[in-house]
């Protein structure tokens, strides 16, 4: 039955597709960067990040040669920093082995660091016109509903079967449009949250889930494991001019990024002051800050914070802390959004000084 969805889907897409800065430019690098950025991030949120990234790193050799701290700063706010690290490793390979141009082969794309079947399919079909599917969450949802498939889409066997079926109907002359049409339909019409907009769907008359009233029951998706809850105390340590930050280890969660000092557990005020003293700093005043929360894929941080005024940070003799003002942080140090509830106090400090 999937043969029947091709023409109405393509016609709908050409009339309704969104104008996006990476679309219709015949630029494989733009397709690659946008697809990595769009993983678990909304299109509207990605637009300014994409523009900034491309402005600073306009091609693959520039990405390959970018210093790590600048790269992390350009990615700041998108999360999942290993994705951009993998991109840089792939860019180095492409620069060395393919003269700085992404290879025009699905299998060669798939061999690059950080490029899985979906991303390889998107680049191959959109940028190079290769008739291969690009199956993401939007596509899985659309096809599950069209076919009224009740199998668990989290199973690799189910995803492989959908890929195989889509490959069989892929239009040889417009594979990129077809893949983007499926993605666009899932993003705008056959949506994941809230009721699907079936009355606006070009596949309404072909959709078995619509015919049988099961749209909201699909797709079937096994529940994820519960995230581990971790309590942390964040310390905003300031001397009136600078804020203390530190660099995380080179491996593990948020590897190599900068953070506000923090410790496991919810500390009482006197415990927080003692923690600052153990950093060889002299606390003068403590202020309780509001709670913060950040959700990673496998863990959830539930945070409390303290703003602690200390005597001059210039007297500090340790190696663990870096002292930065707001302008330095904005230009140089990539602080992940996990600390977003507390980073704003760096700006408030500078405004107080004025």
Question: What does this entry look like structurally?
Answer:
β5 and β6 form a beta hairpin. The chain is built from 15 helices and seven strands. With 354 residues, the protein is α+β, with helices and mostly antiparallel strands. The protein folds into two domains: 2-217, Hypothetical protein, domain 2 (Endonuclease III, domain 1, Orthogonal Bundle), CATH 1.10.340; 228-353, Alpha-Beta Complex (Nucleoside Triphosphate Pyrophosphohydrolase), CATH 3.90.79.10. The relative contact order is 0.11. Mean pLDDT is 94; it is low at 350-354. The strands form two sheets. The protein has a four-stranded mixed β-sheet. Strands 3-2-7 form a three-stranded antiparallel β-sheet. α9 (137-147) packs across α11.
Q: Can you tell me the CATH class of the largest domain?
A: Mainly Alpha
* CATH H-tier superfamily of the largest domain: Hypothetical protein, domain 2
The string of secondary-structure elements, in order, is HHHHHHHHHHHHEEEEHEEEHH
Number of strands: 7
Biggest pleated sheet: 4 strands, mixed
In angstroms, what is the radius of gyration?
Answer: 24 Å
Shape: elongated
Determine the fraction of residues in helical runs and give it as a percent range. Answer: 40-55%
Main-sheet strand order equals 4-1-6-5
Beta-strand residue percentage: 5-15%
- The tally of helices reads 15
Number of domains: 2
- Rounded average pLDDT: 94
